[in-house]
């Protein structure tokens, strides 16, 4: 006997209640019936991302495709994507929008952590990173081809042992090229007050996804009268344009230095 398939009308997010998915503002379920349409679409898209429909680092469909998928206007899709961008769940560069949920990006099986020498704090140790918009430290402006006194994004990293002994410090300044080419870095300018914690561990992934090849040059020098060494890393792209400079101070008696190397642009 032939089996008939019930006909279901197309899904209309503006009429049907949205699925219960993690909110973009919390890790628990949310009931969004009273939310604006664009927030409901953001929640539906987030649900699909969590289900693995689009892996971390993978490009999202275009606005037109998403509008057709959810049965809404492209303007509603733009607003929904902006909600996810603000929460750091979606990022946009010249190739379009892509998912940034936890997990390794599909094109980088082994990414290099930023800043140079940063590492997970051991038992009882603490680590803190902040960003500020200021004139870079002496020597950084020239290395980055910045005009004197021109401010830029400056990242500071510090780790300390449980007893307060300083283990590692790093100061990084980014060039105008990096801030122009990489949207994820540029958006930190508005909140770079020097006090807000900043998570830039995937900065090198962001640079590569923007189509930049990363040439690293590390110089290691002793600091007279101390057991510490200074590691100065300069990073240029395939056009020899400076991207960032980092100065790391590390206690050479306590730590080993591991460094690498040229990273090709993500394709």
UniProtKB/TrEMBL annotation:
Record keywords: DNA-binding, Transcription, Transcription regulation
Segments forming domain HTH gntR-type: 35-109
Listed name of the protein: GntR family transcriptional regulator
PANTHER family attached to this UniProt entry: GNTR-FAMILY TRANSCRIPTIONAL REGULATOR (PTHR44846:SF17), MANNOSYL-D-GLYCERATE TRANSPORT/METABOLISM SYSTEM REPRESSOR MNGR-RELATED (PTHR44846)
Region ranges (Disordered): 1-31
UniProt-listed Gene3D superfamilies: Winged helix-like DNA-binding domain superfamily/Winged helix DNA-binding domain
Domain of life the protein comes from: Bacteria
SMART domains cross-referenced by the UniProt entry: HTH_GNTR
Pfam family, one: GntR
SUPFAM superfamilies named in the record: Winged helix' DNA-binding domain
InterPro entries according to UniProt: Bact_HTH_transcr_reg, Tscrpt_reg_HTH_GntR, WH-like_DNA-bd_sf, WH_DNA-bd_sf
CDD domains associated with the record: WHTH_GntR
Membrane-spanning ranges: none
């Amino acid at each position: 006997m032939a089996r008939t398939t019930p006909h279901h009308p197309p899904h209309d997010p503006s009429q049907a209640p949205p699925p219960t998915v993690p909110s973009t503002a919390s890790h628990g379920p949310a009931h969004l019936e009273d939310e604006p349409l664009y927030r409901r679409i953001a929640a539906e898209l987030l649900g699909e991302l969590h289900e693995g429909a689009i892996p971390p680092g993978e490009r999202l469909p275009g606005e037109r495709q998403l509008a057709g998928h959810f049965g809404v206007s492209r303007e509603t899709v733009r607003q929904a994507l902006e909600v996810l961008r603000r929460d750091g769940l979606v990022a946009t560069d010249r190739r379009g929008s892509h998912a940034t949920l936890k997990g390794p990006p599909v094109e980088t099986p082994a990414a290099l952590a930023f800043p140079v020498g940063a590492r997970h704090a051991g038992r009882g140790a603490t680590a803190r990173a902040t960003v500020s918009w200021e004139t870079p430290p002496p020597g950084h402006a020239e290395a980055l081809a910045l005009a004197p006194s021109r401010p830029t994004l400056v990242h500071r990293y510090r780790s300390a042992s449980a007893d307060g002994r300083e283990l590692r410090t790093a100061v990084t300044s980014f060039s105008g090229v990096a801030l122009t080419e990489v949207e994820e870095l540029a958006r930190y300018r508005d909140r770079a007050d020097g006090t807000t914690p900043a998570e830039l561990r995937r900065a090198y992934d962001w640079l590569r996804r923007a189509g930049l090849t990363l040439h690293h040059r590390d110089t290691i020098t002793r600091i007279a009268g101390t057991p510490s060494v200074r590691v100065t890393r300069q990073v240029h792209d395939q056009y020899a344009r400076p991207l960032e400079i980092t100065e790391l101070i590390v206690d050479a008696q306590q730590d080993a230095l591991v460094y690498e190397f040229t990273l090709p642009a993500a394709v």
